[in-house]
User: What shape does this take?
Amino acid sequence: LETLSQSTNTDQQNPELSAESADQMLENVMKQFENMEQSGEGGEFQDVMEGMMKQLMTKEFLYPPLLEISSKYPAFLESHKNQLSSEELERYTKQHSYVKDICHTYENSPDDIAKIVELMQGMQDCGQP
Assistant: This one.
């Protein structure tokens, strides 16, 4: 993990990474993760990944953009209903339902990460918004 941290810190000092060097950095990170797993540090890797996912799933991180998306769905659906196929309209309506449910969960049970993950997976299964 120390190597991974050093690599990340070095790359953050140079914000103008080219796409090629960003790809190289990602490749190096993946190799470091693979090495951790192969060297028996897999438990540590799992802990790091779980920590990252918990941070990404917090209300502070996800709720504001989801609330904004939720507020824009009705106008989008109304203005595009004549251009969308019935399947697309159904898919977008289902996505909107998932987004509203996620927002509701954040508002009422923000620590229910399992429910949020389940709803996020359902929304993702509907495709790109």
In short: Residues 19 and 34 are 22 Å apart (CA to CA). The longest helix spans residues 86-108.
